Every structure is written in C-alpha cells, then in structure tokens.
Amino acid sequence: MEGSKTSSHRTVLLTGAAKRLGKEIALHFAKAGWNVVLHYGSSKQDALETLAKIKSLGVEAIAIQANLAEAEEIKVLFKASIDQFNRIDCLINSASVFEYDRPSQAMHMLTQPSLMGNIQVNLAAPVLLAQEMFHHLQKQPARNDGLVPVTIQLLDQKLINLNPDYFSYTLSKSALLTATEMMALDFAPIMRSVGLAPGITLPSGQQTEAEFLRAHRMTPMGYSSSADDIAQAALFIANAKAITGTTIYVDGGQHLLSSERDVMFNTQ
C-alpha cells in the first residue's frame, strides 16, 4: 500500500485503476476533488505512476494491491481503505477478466478454471466489496450534504444484445447486471447500486488501431464511448442520488444494433 492517511469528505474506491479505463475514471474523480483508493492487481508500476498523477491534482490517494480472486484479500482491500480514509462514498468496480472463449470453438472452449476465474473477479469480487461497504455504512452517521453512497458496476453494452463470443466474460457480467438490481433493493436506503455499460471504448486484445476505429464507428451516432465519456458518466452517477437499480448505457447507441459476433470482430 502506498499513500498517507486523510479524513477528506468524499472518497472513491476504484478497482482496476492502474491503467486504461479505470485510470481515466480515477483521474476524473480526482479532478472533481474526490480522494482516491486505487486498487491494482499485478500492474504495480502503472499504479504508482497513476497514483502520482492523482496526488499532483491536490487530493489524497493510496494504491493498494489485491488479488480479487481471493475473498480474504477483498476484505483486506476494503479494511485498508477504511483505515486510511475512514469512509468510502463510491465504489466503482472496473477490474475484470476479459479472455476469449466460446463453447462451440474447439480452440477456445470453456474450462472450469477459466469459467470460475471470470466469476470470481467479474461477479463475486464486486458483490463482496459492495457487501463490505454496506455493512460499514450501516455503522456510520448519514451524510449531511445530500450525497448518497453508491456502488457502480462496469458492465457491457453487449448485455442488451447477447452473442456467444467471450462466453465466460459475458455470463459473469450478465449475472452482475442482475446482482446490481438485487443489491439496489437490498441496500436501500443506505446505499445505491447502479450499472454503467460502455460500448467499445479502447482497443483490446489483438485488435489493431485501425480495427478498433472501424468498430468504434459502428453505432447509430457514428461513434461509441470514449474513456472520458465513461468517466463523466460515473461521476454523474456518484452525485445523482435518485439513480439506483438501473444501468446507464454510454455507447453511442451501440446496444441498439444486434450482432451475431462481439463488436471486437465487426470490422468489415
């Protein structure tokens, strides 16, 4: 863990915040004056660089390493966050396993370890962290500034139009979508639960920049989401006390177009 103790009035805990989309969301919250708990898995150098950028914005921040596939490390992550900042007002689950599999393809069939790996990180960890946050908030006095704590789950536009690509990933995110709605009921009125579903936002896997740009344009608006779009939406949700139990799709309308393949492959 890196950082120093603070008692600032608003703090966000963001998993998978060392790089890519998680990093952009963390920086956006920091620019808005939120202190940041930056979780990372194996990307220590990226995490330290992101931590330095966040602290240069004048807010307090810490970086905590944890393996989200391990239940005990999830507990340690949340306890360390509370020990430093006393209270977490927004939990954003950005960390995820995203590896290609599909039952019909002999070279990419599901295995029990890969399926369970997706479930542990993409489903169990977000729910267990939300549970930790709720039981902590139960013991705290209500805020007097109108902010209602929230957990934000990063989902995926493809959940509206399912296809079998990235089967284990999609299955785990589909379950998390349902969990998001169930937690909204279970945790009210102490804490909100909201889904945030990006479209194709950054190049992934073996995708070239040219392939990404073609896929990014395949929406009704002619563009999908940028990292800044997702960060803005997350900050909006954090401050919008009447939003709970729903998912906001930030994708240029990509979810309105059905596809037999994942958008990663729609580059023709």
Automatic annotation (TrEMBL):
Question: Native species of this protein?
Answer: Polynucleobacter sp. UK-FUSCHL-C3
Instruction: Write out the similarity annotation.
Output: Belongs to the short-chain dehydrogenases/reductases (SDR) family.
Name the Pfam families for this protein.
adh_short_C2 (PF13561)
Give the signal peptide, or none: none
Q: Which Gene Ontology molecular function entries are recorded, alphabetically?
A: oxidoreductase activity
What are the alphabetically sorted keywords of the record?
Answer: Oxidoreductase
Protein name from the UniProt record: SDR family oxidoreductase
